[in-house]
Amino acid sequence: MKRSATFALSLAIALSIGTYAWGGAKKGVQGMGTDDLIKTAQGGAPAHISMNAAIMVPDGTGGFKTLKEGTNGFTCIPDISGQEMPDPFCGDGQATEWIMSAVKKDPRPANSTPGIGYMAKGGFHWEKDGAVVMPDTMGAKRVKEPPHWMILWPGNAGISAFQTMPGKFGAYVMYEGTPFAHIMIYQDPSKMMPAGPSLMK
Ligand SMILES: [Cu+2]
């Protein structure tokens, strides 16, 4: 894996895992100004959630910095995978803990209850030999994901009867058998009705 020493933050995010490229080739949100970063991040979830969410971006040292304070407990990040198209993510507090753990390559997610995450612009993952694998896996093939949302809590295909690969059923367990296993739901969050008054702040 190519790393440009100071700036490139290589993330094995166990989501639409990818390389968060802030250095090297122009990818993801590299070169974007603050306003565009915020706008891009807000595209990750329905407006009634993302407009009141905190906006955070990697600070280049393995942490995140806040570009905009939030009021509803959600956080949006403008790009996860560092590919040619930004793939913004928005999540509640638990989902944000989950993704921070993934970014820091912790052995397991820190959230203690399920989190909900949105990727309203879709994202990317990598597949090899009939399994969804980490993006830096040799010989893995990149697959574009449609708009989706996620339950960021360990899923188990044996109990849930969900598949471990995307299929026509529309929901599956990603990273089955790892601490970062979670449920992926291929449903466009921007077409979902608000879940209730708690999300309407
Ligand atoms: Cu996922």
Features of the shown structure:
single chain; 201 residues; alpha+beta; eight-stranded mixed sheet; three-stranded antiparallel sheet; 4 helices; 11 strands; globular; disordered N terminus; binds copper (II) ion
The count of strands amounts to 11
Which structural class is indicated by helix and strand composition?
alpha+beta
Largest sheet: 8 strands, mixed
Distance from first to last alpha carbon: 42 Å
Unreliable spans: 1-24
Globally, the shape reads globular
Helices and strands, in order, run as HHEEEEHEEEEEHEE
Ligands (ions, cofactors included): copper (II) ion
**Spatial ordering of strands, largest sheet:** 2-1-3-4-5-9-11-10
Alpha plus pi helix count: 4
Q: What's the number of structural domains?
A: 1
Q: What integer value in Å does the Rg equal?
A: 16 Å
Task: Tell me the helix content.
Answer: 10-25%
What does this structure look like?
With 201 residues, the protein is an alpha+beta fold. The protein has one domain (34-199). Helix content is 14%, strand content 24%. It is built from four helices and eleven strands. It has helices at residues 34-42, 47-50, 93-103, 157-160; strands at residues 54-58, 64-68, 75-77, 89-91, 115-119, 123-128, 131-133, 141-145, 148-152, 171-174, 182-185. The strands form two sheets. It has an eight-stranded mixed beta sheet with strand order 2-1-3-4-5-9-11-10. It has a three-stranded antiparallel beta sheet with strand order 7-6-8, with no helix packed on it. The N and C termini lie far apart (42 Å). The model is unreliable at 1-24 (pLDDT under 50). The chain binds copper (II) ion. The site of copper (II) ion has 5 residues, from strand 11.
